[in-house]
Amino acid sequence: MTEQERLYRFNHPLTPGDAAPHRAAAALRFEEAWMARCIAGIEQEQGDVRAGTLEGFRAALDRRLSEARATPSEGARFVAEDASREQFRAIVREYALDGLTEAQAMFAVMPRLDPESLPPVMRILIDEFGCGNPARVHSTLYRNLLAELELPTALEGYLQEDRVEAAFSLVNLYHWLTKRAPTVDAYLGALAYTEGAIPWSFRCFVAACERLGIQNHAYFSEHVHIDAYHARDALLALSRRHRAHGVDFHAAWLGAELARCVGDEAFERIVRRAMGAKDVFRIEARGKRYCVVKACPHRGGDLSKGVVRRDGKAITCPLHGATFALPSGRRLGGPECSDLEVTEDGAGPEDRRPA
């Protein structure tokens, strides 16, 4: 069990032993060291937010969000355009640690908020829990997605197998922000970034669901819609708190950067795990686009550098000449090996054309 999983179990105890005093003490020591490392890596990037103004925070936040929208990650492109159903299933499996405990950490922050900033944050929390409708609770929407993908719908099913450690850290961060961060301003900054980022960062998941014919996409599609309003609520909470009591905008920006860095790392590692050893590339053949496993089944040659026949019916590995039919992947010639994994992809720009 990794240290992040131990901390996760402390935050979400499933057995009495998970919250035992000696385990709690060890988990909190790890958390303190982990957060110190994260903060040390971010401190130098505070910039003009150190001036302590709401305008400075808004400007820095807008820049961060604009940068991310302008340059979507390779992982986001892969999810939207290339991930197979099995690969998407693997991504959903990793994020279950978060989806099944959606917004539970928010309860702990309520007593720390002042009367001015509490109502906007409460509106976000109410939405997360379906506005009183059990069928629309966000964790229920995630369970529906898991059920369609034939995955376990109980949290216990995800704590008994190998997980991407960054998936634990994503949830653990928000428990620190809501419960143990020195000031609640850090949480409000993180909330402002997260709610501002989700309307575009979740679009790759919506696109994957549409492309793969997944019906229970509401967990993603609802976030894309509703978090645009939540982003305004998060900034309203900061603004009201600033007017009434003052805000430490250095801490608020630190929270925003923690949310960005930990969230981005979790996403990229989860997607990379889902891709596994089977990195894919895209080709266009006979008017259709296909995802092809990059490593040749013979000796691992890079098929993305291979030659696609002019009629689009075969691809040849540049290393030892193994040739495979398109789109079936059946070996046609060259050294003995298994067939090639090829899947048809949706419409979009191609990476390679027939030679």
Tags for this entry?
single chain, alpha+beta, Heme Oxygenase, Chain A, Rieske Iron-sulfur Protein, 2 domains, three-stranded antiparallel beta sheet, 7 strands, 7% strand, disordered C terminus
Question: What's a concise summary of this model?
Answer:
This protein is 55% helix and 7% strand. The protein contains 13 helices and seven strands. 37% of the residues are buried.
> What is the topology, as strand order, of the major beta sheet?
3-4-5-6
Tally of individual domains: 2
Order of helices and strands: HHHHHHHHHHHHHEEEEEEE
Write down the CATH topology of the largest domain. Heme Oxygenase, Chain A
Mean pLDDT: 90
Notes on the protein architecture:
- Strand 5 and strand 6 form a beta hairpin.
- The chain has helices spanning 3-11, 21-42, 54-70, 74-81, 85-99, 106-109, 118-128, 138-148, 165-180, 184-201, 203-212, 218-245, 249-275; strands at 280-285, 288-293, 307-308, 314-316, 323-325, 331-333, 342-344.
- Residues 346-355 have low confidence and may be disordered.
- The strands form two sheets. Strands 3-4-5-6 form a four-stranded antiparallel beta sheet, with no helix packed on it.
- The N and C termini lie far apart (49 Å).
- It is built from 13 helices and seven strands.
- The protein folds into two domains: 3-275, Heme Oxygenase, Chain A, CATH 1.20.910.10; 280-344, Rieske [2Fe-2S] iron-sulphur domain (Rieske Iron-sulfur Protein, 3-layer Sandwich).
- With 355 residues, it is α+β, with helices and mostly antiparallel strands.
